[in-house]
Write a structure and sequence with these properties.
The structure is a homodimer. Chain A has about 450 residues and is of the alpha/beta class. Chain A folds into three domains: about 160 residues, NAD(P)-binding Rossmann-like Domain (Rossmann fold); about 160 residues, 2-Layer Sandwich (Dihydrodipicolinate Reductase, domain 2); about 80 residues, Alpha-Beta Plaits (2-Layer Sandwich). Helices cover about 35% and strands about 25% of the residues of chain A. In chain A, strands 7, 9, 10, 11, 12, 13, 16, 17, 18 and 20 form a ten-stranded mixed β-sheet that branches. Chain A has a six-stranded parallel β-sheet with strand order 3-2-1-4-5-6, sandwiched between helices. At the A-B interface, helix 1, helix 2, helix 6, strand 13 and helix 12 of A face helix 1, helix 2, helix 6, strand 13 and helix 12 of B.
């Protein structure tokens, strides 16, 4: 049986683009049998045609003028894997207006300009697919839009940045410091030369913005997402966590609390017995609770050329199947039809209530703990456990306090007051504890 | 905005059916906004209209004549949740011929009659959806057909029966015997009055048949799947597993080995560090390795009214979205287009090679271990570890041997010869060990 041919234009040929090219070539027959069409990348846009790349492409496929894919009437589908936000937005808008479907792996693009892009795609009745933007090879967006569609998503916890999870796993297992472990991660290619985007939590927040939109059917104003990175975590914190039965993970969290939606990224202590605690190294996972399905988790490689390309190819096949059926947009990109998507009322982090791990760096003198405890109690914060191993009169030592449920804004005020004490030498470290049912 | 209405006929109102009714009612508005249509169950077929049920339905909805849903021209979609294989097959074929789409949770139906049903559905251009048949609320079938579509699935390991996983978890944690734990599971409603279907591995094998078909794009001759249940596992085996760094799980496994496909269900020892080992109690999970995506896992509730109903509702929404777009069959039900689905060449279990855990029940006399070791070596089986804790001259004691990779048919022959030794009092227990990369 001869398959109809679907021509694809790909913009970008870096890590992800090379992976996409590789999959479409290695699995050409398999993909035809699954998609019902022969998938052919007929044009690839690159900045320089001479650069060395991990894949070899016929010269006639390469082109450095982005307009050529937009102008090619045979190309029905554009795959955007260049990364840059400004250029991607322009490309996406032009593609939609030219009636072409778009597959993108660009999480920042969607987190910052999603609303505009979804509207434009809908107006032109074309598909916009972006599974690769969240969790690499993990098909979590599809799961939320389709498999879990019968549920209100009460809570969702994601390990969405492999760099952070690798660093925290290594620091915990090898007792190495953050800067040392980061250097190691960079050497292994698990962290960028400029790591702030990853370790600062921004990358995870971009992905969370997309998840919040699909989970709750809302648009998210990105700056309203609370973001805290892992730079302040020490091997001592990980050791204490271990002693209290916890692991520390950078979690991207969203919960529904009446009309309010929580959306926050920060280092979090979770029980060692939880499924998320078993997620080590560069792996990603999303754990969720739906009101009917109960708890669920999807786990896998969150980044890298081939896992991300696998997700892009999943989207290419979806668009191809739709092109063959002469439909688009059967599943709305955010899972909810556009007319019913409102703006998210994001709850300020100050409203959060839960238990905390607090590490005070204090000069070891009699009465310091009493001072700390007194201030905490002034703000209505009650202590569930205290840990102070080292005793060295007159030297700086860490004092660890675990609290019962307390409100963030009270905790922040209490800490500000404590940080002003004469015997406190550095800013206090605060780590939120999540006790999700399991 | 007024939504178009899609009328549904549901056949069966037991555990799953009640859950479906509940979701469609509690989430009527949410589902309309997500599906783009108002979903209404206009007829429910039950055997007795007077039976007490967990949900209250208007009397006019209930009907005991199955033909009424088939004859109702307004009903475009039939949800089959009655369970019985014969009746379901008849219903499915009649539904397809009447041009109606079908959603079913019936794994036995698909494992035994899938080929016939898929052909008939295709002929009539209607959808057949069955996400709830495998892994309850876990959207694994969709993930294989869509998200992972760019991969050759090299291996897949499923914990697909909550009853077995509950029993093994309890036996391991509480050191209780199989019969005692089974009784407890029955009391809690985690096991049926006739538990053979679950603990014997048949239920998991039905689900595996479906997974094999989608993962590899093949039809499976169900009797060719090797099935072994958990009835022979003792607390002693679990204790030994623990000592060697393993957990015992009932796994449904499929691997691609050139043109041959492995498809087998049996108790399996896996490393405690693996993600599957973290799956406790009644939960299910599917772990897989794709050639591009690498490792992935989906985890969640594998059974129960609401998780299973959540999966059924996911399928209902899929069909509804297709009805609105006036398409069907855009994603083939087995992920591969029918013309390219062949029959699976299932590798006989005798061809399997791997390490084994062997427990011999021997009379403790000098030389017994030597006899066992000699026979194993005759068959080319080499020992990696031996464990014999109790020494009680003249009494029956367990002798545990771990082997290096060995071939199943040699192991079976060696065991048969060993079982004939004068000092061996019972059939030897054999548990396969899977060392999947992680």
């Amino acid at each position: 049986m001869a398959f109809p041919k679907i021509k694809i234009g790909m913009v970008g040929l870096g890590t992800v683009g090379s992976g996409v090219w590789k999959i479409l070539h290695r699995h050409q027959a398999l993909l035809s049998q699954r998609a019902g069409a022969k998938l052919e990348i007929s044009k690839v846009i690159v900045r320089s045609k001479k650069k060395k790349r991990p894949v070899r492409l016929p010269a006639k496929v390469l082109n450095s003028n982005i307009q050529t894919v937009l102008d090619d009437p045979e190309i029905k589908l554009i795959v955007e894997v260049m990364g840059d936000v400004r250029a991607s937005r322009q490309l996406a808008l032009k593609a939609f207006r030219a009636g072409k479907h778009l597959v993108t792996a660009n999480k920042a693009l969607l987190a910052l300009h999603g609303k505009e892009l979804f509207q434009e795609a809908k107006k032109n009745r074309v598909d916009i697919c972006f599974e690769a933007a969240v969790g690499g090879g993990i098909p979590i967006l599809r799961a939320l839009r389709e498999g879990f569609v019968g549920n209100r998503i009460d809570s969702l916890y994601g390990i969405l940045n492999g760099t952070c999870n690798y660093i925290l796993t290594e620091m915990s297992e090898r007792k190495t410091s953050f800067p040392e472990t980061l250097k190691q991660a960079q050497k292994l290619g698990y962290a960028e030369a400029d790591p702030r985007f990853d370790v600062g939590g921004i990358d995870a927040a971009h992905k969370l913005a997309i998840l919040v939109s699909i989970a709750h059917g809302v648009f998210v104003d990105f700056p309203k997402i609370f973001v805290e990175g892992i730079q302040g975590i020490t091997p001592f914190d990980l050791e204490c966590a271990d002693r209290f039965g916890f692991e520390i993970k950078l979690l991207a969290i969203t919960k529904k609390n009446g009309d309010k939606i929580q959306a926050r990224v920060h280092p979090t202590m979770i029980s060692k017995d939880s499924m998320l605690a078993a997620v080590k190294g560069v792996n990603n996972a999303v754990f969720l609770e739906g009101d009917f399905v109960g708890e669920g988790m999807l786990y896998g490689r969150g980044a890298g050329s081939e896992p991300t390309a696998s997700a892009v190819v999943g989207d290419i096949v979806e668009v191809a199947r739709n092109i063959l059926a002469k439909v688009a947009y059967t599943v709305p990109p955010l899972g909810t039809h556009a007319a019913h998507i409102g703006n998210a009322a994001i709850e300020p982090i100050g409203e959060w209530r839960g238990p905390y791990y607090l590490r005070f760096q204090a000069i070891d003198r009699p009465g310091v703990l009493a001072q700390i405890a007194k201030i905490l109690s002034e703000f209505g914060i009650s202590i569930s456990a205290v840990h102070q191993q080292v005793r060295e009169e007159g030297r700086e030592v860490p004092i660890v306090v675990l609290t019962h449920d307390a409100q963030e804004k009270s905790v922040v005020k209490a800490i500000a007051k404590i940080n002003r004490l004469k015997n406190i030498r550095r800013a206090t470290t605060l780590i939120r504890i999540e006790e999700f049912c399991q």
